[in-house]
Amino acid sequence: MALKQRFNVEANFSMASMTDVIFLLLIFFMITSTIVVPNAIKVLLPKSQQQAQAKPITRVTIDKDLNYYVANANETERMVTFEQITPFLQSVYSAEPDIFVALYADEEVPYREIVKILDIANQNQFKMVLMTRPN
Predict the structure, then answer these.
(1) Are 80 and 88 a contacting pair, CB within 8 Å?
(2) Rounded Cα–Cα distance for residues 54 and 57 (Å)
């Protein structure tokens, strides 16, 4: 007695569910990836083997023409004088005492200008991070 098969088995593989999975993975990685703060000021950072592990929120930038810029969180950088840096950092520190201040200095900036900013951080007990680019 011969039994007949009522349906045919097809050897095709449906890619519809695979594209859904890839789409969901893409969304997942886009959401969970770190947000990079774009630096609109042209600063050529010095090279370094180690990169900063802390996530700085407040930024102080010195360009090659010795112009000073400050920004907090997702704000855009605004130009300030050297005398305005300390009050700005103190106001940010009073709102958030656990801040890290990132110092972006062009590699052509004289060391004495960087030390001035480091002195401000040292006098006010701010945690300062020197930003560099990967080697």
Answers:
(1) yes
(2) 9
- Residue 132, Cβ neighbours under 10 Å: how many? 17
DSSP sequence for 87-101: HHHHHHHHH-TT-EE
* CA–CA dist 21, 30 (Å, integer): 14
- The pLDDT tens digits for 5-44 are 777 777 777 777 888 888 889 888 888 776 655 555 555 5
Architecture of domain 58-132: 2-Layer Sandwich (3.30)
- The 10 Å CB-count burial string (b at 16+, else e) for 37-57 is eebebebeeeeeeeeeeeebb
